[in-house]
Amino acid sequence: MFMLCFTRIIFQTTTQHVMMASTLPEETSSDWVTINSDVTTESASTGSDSAGIAYVLSLPLALVILLTVSANVIVIVCVKSDKKLWKPTNLYVASLAVADAVVGLVVMSFMTVYTLYRLWPLGEDLCTLWACVDFAMCTISMLHLCLIAQDRYTALSQPIKYRSPTRWRFVMASITVAWILGLLVWIPPIVYYRKTGPPTPNDCYFIPPNRTYILVQSILVYYTPILIMLYFYVICLWGLRGRMRKIQDMAGAAGNQNAGGQVATVTGASGVASQQRSAWTTEEDSGSVAVSQMTTTVSTINTSDQTSTLASTTEPRNQLTKPRDNRQGLTQQQRRHAEHVRSLRTLGVIMATFLFCWLPFCLFWPIAAHCETCIPARVYEYSYWAAYLNSTVNPALYFVCNKEFRAAFGKLVRRLRKR
Length: 419
Hints:
The protein is built from 11 helices and no strands. By secondary structure, it is mainly α. The chain folds into 2 domains: about 1-10 and about 55-245 and about 350-419, Rhopdopsin 7-helix transmembrane proteins (Up-down Bundle), CATH 1.20.1070; about 250-325. It starts with a helix and ends with a helix.
């Protein structure tokens, strides 16, 4: 309801500004890039048509925003309420959900206005606020994906260090650094360029006139995190391959030891039986043996029989103890390997989705700074929405790929039904 009311208010306010857009001066410098300036006159001349389209599209876009915010809030609640999710890696997930929820609530809401009316009617101050929250939250989201990839690499390559009590403090410190870095990288330059640059009444895309700055920021903030994520993911896949070979070698060794124990048992039993047959054959052939000697012989045979039988049964058990222990250790390693496989599968899906959503903007942003007319306004706008939709998809991927999150969500639903 909040999002629907917010969209309706923005719709009413924006309609008035669209009607007045034709009277606004175009005070833009030739050095300041304005992607949306080519559509301002068109939007002003067709204000009534744009208002009708805005009224139709406002509900679907509001539902997308509502889905983004609610899904990420559910992730946060699940991590907080379910003890099984109290793991260091899930702290990254919860912090990522906070950033994605802010993207849905603030960034996507203002972008809806831009999409519906193809101009910015809310003033310079709100434009600066929107640009700061937009770039900062999206960068924080990207940094969290890098931290999640690094967390999976540490769990696979250094399991003892990963399970140490200090891991929690490292995770909290990493999250704090990611938030501070994301805010410091974008807020000061955005405020500086918005205050010192010429006014752009109908345009709010942040493309500074300093092309060198845009190129450096693109490399540091976008391309470097992508390369870091790909590096950790490839290293994790290589490590899983080596671990799988090790488990297969252990399984083969355990099978060979088990087969050897069974052969020893059969050999010991056949040896005892042959001794018994030879002893009784000797007694039957010597018919003149006394009763006392026969008794002594029988007792001796029985004693040796029991000793041989006990030895033959005890020895294979001792031999089978090690294979059983090996099988238990093998089962634990297989279980851990399966957990790593599931985690990396989830990470792989998240990374593939991330690349699909973010590559258009990462490519278009520096291109638009060097060539204003190379990218159409609608295509550039699509790159923004594609990047935002990554915040909508992230929480859905956790529920689809992680059974612990699904179980926590089921518990949450049952708890709400009881109320």
